């Protein structure tokens, strides 16, 4: 299966379990591997058959910033559900990283895979 990739999509949002986190915006970095058949787009050179990474990026930014969330696990599930229902990807691997969340680590994060690859 072909894949469309997005790496380090940077989204500033309110996320966290602590009260001080609910008062500030923090950065999330999102990596996506989306199962998508690129054969038709490549064969026709027609944008209508491609998975538009700009549309995906804009939609996910709107989704994640619409309301505060406590857990990056929740963010990952929201992303997977959106991609599979709204964009009709057959499968997705979502990595959500939260840089600076732990002072002694560069970043912490989660990875989930949903659907078929």
| SSE class | alpha+beta
What's the pLDDT, averaged over the residues? 97
Radius of gyration: 15 Å
> Could you spell the SSE succession in H and E letters?
EEHHHEE
Q: Can you give the helix content as a percent range? A: 25-40%
* Percent range for β-strand residues: 25-35%
Total helical elements? 3
Spatial order of strands in the largest sheet: 1-2-3-4
* Number of E-type strands: 4
Q: Quote the distance from N terminus to C terminus.
A: 6 Å
Q: What's the shape?
A: elongated
Uncertain parts: none
Major sheet attributes: 4 strands, antiparallel
Key structural traits:
single chain; 117 residues; alpha+beta; four-stranded antiparallel β-sheet; 4 strands; 29% helix
Verbal overview:
The chain has 117 residues and is α+β, with helices and mostly antiparallel strands. Helices cover 29% and strands 33% of the residues. The chain contains three helices and four strands, in the order ββαααββ. The protein has helices at residues 39-44, 53-65, 72-86; strands spanning 3-13, 26-35, 91-99, 107-115. Strands 1-2-3-4 form a four-stranded antiparallel β-sheet, covered by helices on one side. The chain starts with a strand and ends with a strand.
């Amino acid at each position: 299966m072909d894949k469309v990739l997005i790496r380090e999509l940077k989204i500033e949002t309110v996320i966290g379990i602590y009260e001080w986190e609910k008062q500030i915006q923090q950065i999330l970095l999102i990596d996506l591997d989306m199962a998508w058949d690129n054969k038709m787009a490549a064969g026709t050179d027609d944008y209508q058959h491609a998975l538009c990474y700009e549309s995906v990026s804009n939609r996910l930014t709107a989704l994640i910033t619409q309301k505060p969330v406590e857990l990056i696990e929740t963010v990952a599930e929201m992303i997977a559900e959106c991609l599979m229902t709204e964009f009709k990807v057959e499968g997705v691997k979502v990595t959500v990283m939260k840089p600076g969340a732990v002072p002694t680590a560069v970043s912490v994060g989660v990875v989930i895979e949903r659907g078929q690859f």
